[in-house]
């Protein structure tokens, strides 16, 4: 019988050879001091660099690689990683560790207390932003939130896009088995599905810092994001989220 795993951490990664080794070392240093059981799952989204080769070096230290042969997008990589995770609780985070690892235990306590989904928020009382995004990026993020709240009717959530979210295993499997958005609006779909399926959502204030070398280009994602937000609504109207 395999040992029961308390926590699975899922990291989506695309061409992260410059940081993935340091990231995994930092995560392992943190987890090795914990009494609960854990695993780390890296979902490589078809990287063209040495990300996968580096991750494989950690295979004997509790790190598993899930490798997509072709780039799907962060939402697609997350789906693969989350569905492969075996933990009682599953938390995904960005490979740049923009949210401090101390939030893992905060999230675990909230999940243990009965929350089905816990999402990090930079826009509620208690949140601290150490390094802000450029003004235009922050403004676009707020527009995305307003648009998402309108199109998905999830009015209580004020930060959809922070890349640090936790789930009970049951919630993770239900949500990610049915999710369909592979790219920029995947966060909105995840939270929409959490509410649709009746899972409780807890917003947790976090300390956050912007990644200075972010490779996201606003011009290339605005129309795609709007299209995918509409797709979430259309998918729901067409009953595509009722299959599992």
Second CATH tier, the architecture: Alpha-Beta Complex
CATH superfamily: Spore Coat Polysaccharide Biosynthesis Protein SpsA, Chain A
Question: What spatial form do the alpha-carbon principal axes imply?
Answer: globular
How many structural domains can be distinguished in the coordinates?
1
Give the H and E element order: EHEHEHEHEEHEHHEEH
The total count of strands amounts to 9
Helix and strand topology:
Blueprint (H helix, E strand, L loop, with lengths): L6 E7 L6 H12 L6 E8 L5 H6 L6 E6 L5 H11 L4 E5 L9 H10 L4 E5 L6 E4 L3 H18 L11 E5 H10 L7 H11 L4 E5 L1 E3 L8 H20 L7
Parallel strand pairs: 1-2, 1-4, 2-3, 5-8, 6-9
Antiparallel strand pairs: 4-7, 5-7
Helix pairs in contact: 3-6, 5-8
Explain the overall architecture.
With 244 residues, the protein is of the alpha/beta class. It has one domain (7-237): Spore Coat Polysaccharide Biosynthesis Protein SpsA, Chain A, CATH 3.90.550. 40% of the residues lie in helices and 20% in strands. It has eight helices and nine strands. It has helices at 20-31, 51-56, 74-84, 103-112, 135-152, 169-178, 186-196, 218-237, and strands spanning 7-13, 38-45, 63-68, 89-93, 117-121, 128-131, 164-168, 201-205, 207-209. The strands form two sheets. The chain has a seven-stranded mixed sheet, sandwiched between helices. A two-stranded parallel ribbon has the order 6-9. The longest helix has 20 residues, at 218-237. The protein is globular, with a radius of gyration of 17 Å. The protein starts with 6 loop residues before the first strand and ends in a 7-residue tail after the last helix.
């Amino acid at each position: 019988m395999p040992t029961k795993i308390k926590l699975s951490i899922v990291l989506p990664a695309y061409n992260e050879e410059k940081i993935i080794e340091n990231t995994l070392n930092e995560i392992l240093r943190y987890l090795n001091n914990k009494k609960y059981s854990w695993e780390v799952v890296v979902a490589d989204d078809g990287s063209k660099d040495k990300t996968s080769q580096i991750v494989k070096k950690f295979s004997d230290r509790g790190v598993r690689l899930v490798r997509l042969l072709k780039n799907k997008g962060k939402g697609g990589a997350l789906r693969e990683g989350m569905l492969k995770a075996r933990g009682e609780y599953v938390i995904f985070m960005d490979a740049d560790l923009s949210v401090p690892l101390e939030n893992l235990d905060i999230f675990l306590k909230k999940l243990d207390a009965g929350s089905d989904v816990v999402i990090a928020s930079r826009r509620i009382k208690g949140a601290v932003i150490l390094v802000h995004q450029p003004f235009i990026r922050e403004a676009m993020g707020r527009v995305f939130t307003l648009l998402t709240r309108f199109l998905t009717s999830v009015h209580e959530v004020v930060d959809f896009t922070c890349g640090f979210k936790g789930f009970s295993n049951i919630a993770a499997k239900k949500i990610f088995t049915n999710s369909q958005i592979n790219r920029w609006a995947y966060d909105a779909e995840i939270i929409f599905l959490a509410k649709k399926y009746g899972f409780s959502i807890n917003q947790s204030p976090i300390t956050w810092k912007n990644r200075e070398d972010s490779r996201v280009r606003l011009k290339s994602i605005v129309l795609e994001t709007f299209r995918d937000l509409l797709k979430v609504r259309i998918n729901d109207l067409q009953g595509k989220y009722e299959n599992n």
